[in-house]
Amino acid sequence: RSITGPQEGLIRVFDNKNTAFFDTSGNIVIPFSNYSAFPFTNGVSIVHSPKSNMSRPKIGLMNKTGAFIKDYSFSKVGAFTFYKDLNKVLAKASPINNILSGLIDTSGEYVIKPLYRDINPDKNGFFRVTMLSWDKDDNSNTDKSFYLVNIDGQVFIDTEQPNPNIKKPDGIVKIGILGRDRTIISEPIYDNARATYNNSIAVSKNGKWGIVNNLNDVIVPIQYQEIEIITPSIALIKENDNWGIINTKTKLLTLPIEYQELKVLSLKQVTAKKNNKWSTINL
Q1: pLDDT value of position 164
Q2: What pLDDT does 53 receive?
Q3: What per-residue confidence (pLDDT) applies to 160?
């Protein structure tokens, strides 16, 4: 027999796979039942089904009357925590047969959908999340991408967190941009966004790419097939399947858009392929 508490006014007694709760006077409040229920935190007890095991956990939520808030709907539920900046009690949770996580409130409903490999508090009401990109050919994860989400489920990039130059992970519709202090630089209006340098952010709309700065001012028009930012002032741009180089400060072409391929050797030299011939060009 295991006795825990009192916690939030209730004493938990666990005896041979059964759990009950008593008040501090020894009166039974929730009779013994065939489940493993954790002590109450912020008015909620996390309950493991008698059919739950390490490989196939089945978890529900119970209130202080012993009524189930949510039946065995989860494979993982973290501690319910009060977030002062949001004035909400939330817990990280994963659905049955799913490794992805979101955030639920004390009613057991998702306020941030379970789309993320991991989700952790950041600051000013935002949560830092991790997403994996999968290689469908060998069914393995290839890269991690990091984003910030708010309680409305809106997704943002952090200007100080570069992400791999990969296809946007599934589950994200629109992306916004956040500053270091988590002020919103741009609402989620972009189809994709990649921070390379704090003052140079590649963004995409309607299949076209451009560059904005950390005030969301457009510094390279959103009109190109692809963009690869090399330095805060140099970017490779692709249009009509040809590559060139633009100076993002002067907005002038350093190299015309007429090359099949470009490879950067240094800040002052590239190799370029044109008419199926390679040559070295000094910038």
Answers
A1: 73
A2: 80
A3: 86
Averaged in consecutive runs of 10 residues, what is the pLDDT profile of the chain (283 residues)?
Answer: 91 94 96 96 95 87 96 95 94 94 96 93 94 63 83 92 76 91 95 84 95 93 94 92 94 94 90 94 88
Q: Give the span between the Cα atoms of 36 and 53, in whole angstroms.
A: 11
Sign of CA dihedral 129, 56, 29, 27: negative
CB neighbour burial string for 12-21, b if at least 16 within 10 angstroms, e if fewer: bbbeeebbbb
What's the rounded Cα separation, in Å, for the pair 116 and 175? 15
The burial class, CB within 10 Å (0-12 / 13-18 / 19+), for 82 is exposed
User: Which residues does 103 contact at the CB level (< 8 Å), separation at least 6?
Assistant: 90, 91, 92, 93, 110, 111, 112, 119, 127, 151
Which residues, listed in sequence order, are joined to residue 82 by a DSSP beta bridge? 89
Q: Given this model, what pLDDT does residue 142 score? A: 64
**Cα radius of gyration rounded to whole Å, the chain:** 26
The whole-angstrom separation of Cα 61 and Cα 48 is: 9
Residues whose CB is less than 8 angstroms from the CB of residue 26 and which lie 6 or more positions away in sequence, other chains included: none
Contact call for residues 103 and 93 (beta carbons, < 8 A)? yes
CA dihedral of 50, 54, 59, 65, whole degrees rounded to 10 = 50
Query: Helix %, strand %, coil % for the chain, to 5?
Result: 0, 60, 40
